[in-house]
Design a protein that fits this description.
Blueprint: E1 2-5, E2 15-21, E3 28-29, E4 34-39, E5 44-48, E6 53-58, E7 65-67, E8 71-77, H1 86-94, H2 108-124, E9 131-133, H3 137-145, H4 164-171, H5 195-198, H6 202-222, E10 231-233, H7 241-269, H8 276-290, E11 294-302, H9 304-308, H10 310-313, H11 319-331, E12 339-342, E13 345-348, E14 354-360, E15 363-369, H12 377-393, E16 406-410, E17 429-433, E18 437-443, E19 446-460, H13 466-481, H14 483-486, H15 488-516
Parallel strand pairs: 14-16, 16-17
Antiparallel strand pairs: 1-8, 2-4, 2-7, 3-6, 4-5, 6-8, 9-10, 11-19, 12-13, 14-15, 17-19, 18-19
Helix pairs in contact: 6-7, 11-12, 11-13
Length: 517
């Protein structure tokens, strides 16, 4: 018996959600065949068969979460198909072949049956067992409706899978459906620290469950549910459409039943299970609060000067990028804030890798900008936009979703001022950005209009005391209130570039003079 266990996809992920099974119990599989698709809080992966055989039992159904190392399914290994040994071959040769009754000795009705079977075999022209193309029920049904023989379709999908576009192309019909997951999503960032924003109403829960199941169905039929164009030999002729229809109907009925069951439970109780990304977020945030001593400090940053120069900083530069630049500079002078807490130790990190909380349709994602202290403001804004887009489309690479040393989260787009961000383990601190606001202040007997930005810093008191944390937050505020100091390094770089250009011009002039003389 072969056990299909949940693999460890990443070092920081110990649980995954079963998105969809590509096989059912009783299906024959080959080594390397995709068995199921799993989803962590950061990516989607496939689990392949490690050996050939037959699916005996599927333990974790679609929509259920499993931990690393748990058995997802079991496979009965395939029978030994190696060539017969010489001594075994002799025994086979000594066995008398099956005797065949001559036609003239058969009864009239037996003779008719024999002749009919021989005629059908000659007409079919099959000398070898037929090969069956393994495909999702929805795509097989589409092929039948369009009269497209699957054996003639060349798959262009991942690992050579047949897609809906491939079938429509062979049928001469354009306009295959776009894969699921490309719909427009919100581009604002939020954090899991506000439960009221994360828990929908009963009506929303029903709609969310229905949409998630519908998306899973669409993915299964268009992309993920395909079982590849690999073929396997069958002991008999290729199954007819009538033979396949009951299995397809049974599979679709099972999927529909799962959707209805989930929707019915939601209607009755409004409950949303802690599974998938939602379950991972719940577990990590609970562990963070239970296993650390968290303290939040808040303060305003007067960004009046910075706001007046913001347009000159670059097109589309946002406050998150500006605060990220200030935080990256301040972290260099506060190693205990840029640290991990592991196994009872404080481990300051040399690299300054900033994590950014991104709201996606699959839940909260943390995109990581490596070596953020070495990036200019323009680069920060550009790379942040790219990471956010990748996070929403589920295309973050491993280095873009791991190894963050300090996290920044913003609720400013939701008009939130101060809040209590929860630390992302094993980090020692997290910074929250609120919404910028206009206020009036009395200075030198005159009323002035100013701009201020609320900042919320949560620290792990095991590693950082209140006073050092306040100094770190004060350094960030100081940089935001003094734009020249914040962009001093960029001004130096700009001067160096100008100096280099002048040198190049002088060199080119000297060369031109020498040539002319």
């Amino acid at each position: 018996m072969i056990e299909v266990k949940l693999p460890k996809i990443r070092e920081d992920v110990n649980e995954s959600l079963v998105v969809i099974w590509f096989v059912s119990e009783g299906d024959a599989v080959k080594k390397g065949d995709p068995l199921l698709e799993i989803q962590t809080e950061k990516e989607v992966s496939e689990v392949e068969a490690e050996a050939s055989g037959t699916i005996k039992e599927i333990i974790y159904k679609r929509g259920e979460s499993a931990k690393v190392g748990e058995v997802l399914a079991t496979i009965n290994p395939a029978e030994n198909t190696q060539e017969t040994k010489p001594e075994e071959q002799k025994l086979v040769e000594n066995i008398e072949p099956e005797t065949k009754i001559p036609k003239d000795e058969q009864k009239p009705e037996e003779q008719k049956v024999t002749e009919k079977a021989e005629q059908e075999k000659e007409d079919s022209g099959q000398t070898e067992p037929a090969k069956t193309v393994r495909l999702a029920p929805g795509l097989r049904k589409l092929a039948r409706e369009l009269n497209v023989p699957l054996e003639s379709v060349a798959g262009t999908g991942r690992n050579g899978r047949i897609t809906e576009k491939d079938i429509r192309r062979v049928a001469g019909q354009p306009g295959a459906l776009e894969p699921a997951g490309n719909e427009e999503v919100s581009k604002q960032e939020k954090t899991p620290e506000e439960p009221a924003q994360e828990v929908p109403t009963e009506k929303d829960a029903v709609a969310e469950n229905a949409s998630h199941e519908a998306e899973a169905e669409k993915v299964s039929e268009e992309e993920g549910g395909q079982e590849g164009t690999e073929t396997e030999e069958e002991p008999s002729e290729e199954p007819s459409e009538k033979d396949l229809a009951p299995e397809e109907r049974a599979a679709l009925a099972e999927q529909a039943e799962a959707i209805l069951e989930t929707q019915e439970k939601s209607r009755e109780t409004g409950a949303i299970p802690f599974s998938g990304i939602r379950g991972v977020i719940a577990r990590r945030m609970t562990e963070s609060l239970q296993n650390s001593a968290q303290l939040t400090e808040t303060a305003w940053a007067d960004v009046t000067k910075l706001d007046s120069k913001k347009d000159a900083l670059g097109k589309g530069v946002g406050w998150t990028a500006v605060v990220a630049k200030a935080a990256a500079q301040a972290l260099a002078d506060h190693p205990l804030v840029n640290a991990y807490i592991k196994e009872g130790q404080i481990l300051p990190q040399d690299a300054i890798n900033l994590g950014f909380a991104v709201d996606t349709d699959r839940g909260l994602q943390v995109a990581v900008l490596q070596e953020a202290n070495q990036a200019s403001l323009g680069d920060l804004q550009k790379r942040l936009a790219e990471l956010a887009e990748k996070a929403r489309s589920g295309q973050l690479a491993n280095e873009e979703s791991s190894s963050s040393t300090f996290t920044i989260t913003s609720l400013g787009a939701y008009r939130i001022q101060f809040f209590t961000p929860i630390i992302n383990p094993p980090e020692a601190a997290i910074l929250g950005i609120g919404t910028i606001e206009t206020y009036l202040v009395l200075k030198d007997g005159k009323v002035q209009e100013r701009k201020r930005l609320p900042l919320s810093l949560t620290i792990d008191h095991r590693a950082i005391d209140g006073a050092p944390a306040a100094k770190f937050l004060g350094d960030i505020i100081g940089l935001l209130e003094k734009p020249k100091q914040l962009f001093k390094d960029e001004e130096v770089m700009e001067k160096e570039k100008k100096a280099e250009k002048k040198k190049d011009k002088k060199k080119s002039k000297k060369k031109s003079k020498k040539k002319s003389s």
